[in-house]
Amino acid sequence: MRLAFIMSELGSGLRRNLTMVISVILVTFVSLTFVGTAGLLQMQIGQLKGFWYDKVQVTIYLCTDIPANTNCVSGPVTDEQKTTIEDLLESPAVKPYVETWTFESQEEALGHFQEQFANSPMVDSVEAANLPSSYRIKLTDPTKYQIINETFAATPGVDSVVDQRKVLNKLFSWMNIATYVAMGVAALMTICAALLIATTIRLSAQSRTREIEIMRLVGASRTVIQLPFVLEGVIAATIGALLASGAVWSIVHFFFGGYLASSSSGTPYISTADAFVIYPVLILLGIVLAGIASAVSLRKNLKV
């Protein structure tokens, strides 16, 4: 009997406040979609870090005809200086930190440059002599870059030692900023959703003041009186959370797995299976958000 009464009151409230319920669904949907998107960005950044840091290289650029530092004042790198660098790479002090190394000549560097900038008008203005030859080093531990830098930075014939992680870190920093912006918008939208839910439940309860008084007179408990109103908010927010989960799935499936994966096949992107952990979090967040907002609204603003 009590359950039937609660369900009856719940149905009545949803019908009377259909416009406000739809508003709660939409605001919850938008706010939780931002939350889910922020989670996706952070997951993608983590996956890219694992992929690219595993492939990261340290590049030792050699001197050319144009001296860039004191190591190059004597002119381009000589065969003897190259032999010295290679001996250092194979020395007991350095070899444990080096997984593999390869030499890239100026002609090979030009070929790679032409591949990367095939659509650029500057590609025909660069010659092999303009590009330095280099040693490409894959470290056993990418965090040990400083050891390679200290060993080779002052070696004759070496122009510079570049850690590709620094370039990647800048990219990941911008991606992290985008994540924080998304999280900030998500937090703002979540606050808006909570306020709207609280307002909706308060107005719903105020429109049924007489019914609430009758329930109090017949001995209905505070929980029985409040529960239909709380369930209104929970149901609306749950629908919004389900829609947000669907939106997040669509982003992963069509954007990450479709558009981005087809445009850059060599880069790993998160899949719908990877993002599955986000969906229950969004639904749980929607339920908790609505439950707390509804309960607080009734306790603070209504004498029931």
Automatic annotation (TrEMBL):
| Record domain ABC3 transporter permease C-terminal: where | 185-300
Q: Which cellular components does GO assign to this protein?
A: plasma membrane
* One GO term (biological process): cell division
Membrane-spanning parts? 21-45, 177-203, 224-256, 276-298
Q: What is this entry's stated membrane topology?
A: Multi-pass membrane protein
For the keyword Cell membrane, the answer is yes
Task: Tell me its family.
Answer: Belongs to the ABC-4 integral membrane protein family. FtsX subfamily.
Subunit info here reads: Forms a membrane-associated complex with FtsE.
Q: Which NCBIfam families match?
A: FtsX_actino
- Role this protein plays: Part of the ABC transporter FtsEX involved in cellular division.
Q: What is this protein called?
A: Cell division protein FtsX
Source species of the chain? Arthrobacter psychrochitiniphilus
